[in-house]
Write a structure and sequence with these properties.
Layout (H helix, E strand, L loop, with lengths): L2 H11 L2 H13 L4 E2 H8 L3 H13 L3 E6 L2 E6 L1 H12 L8 H5 L2
Antiparallel strand pairs: 1-3, 2-3
Length: about 100
């Protein structure tokens, strides 16, 4: 992941609702959830969810697919791992490896 993509992803996650949506989708797995289920579980209006989930989609953190009349959203694990890799890329080259590994 390059720096502009990381900034976009971090910006997308820098909001309580978007972070909650992303965490829910990560926990759900590759099957994802419909927009209606996400909105219901988080207690937000569908129009508000659309705004937030499109922000995550544009940042490349979620995938969307259509099943009949529903849009299903799922976390993009490759993008998530790419962001984590970007954030820790130089960590283990530093003198304090324990700080990066949590040991």
């Amino acid at each position: 992941m390059d720096s502009p993509a990381a900034v976009s992803a971090l910006g997308a996650l820098a909001h309580d609702t978007r972070l909650a949506v992303f965490r829910m989708l990560v926990e759900r797995g590759p099957d994802g959830l419909s927009a209606g289920v996400i909105a219901e579980r988080l207690g937000i209006l569908p129009s508000s969810l659309t705004f937030h989930i499109q922000h995550l989609h544009r940042a490349g953190l979620v995938n969307q697919r259509r099943v009949s009349r529903q849009l299903i959203y799922a976390a993009d694990y490759a993008a998530m791992n790419g962001l984590l890799g970007f954030l820790t890329e130089n960590c283990c080259g530093r003198a304090d490896v324990a700080a990066c590994t949590g040991t």
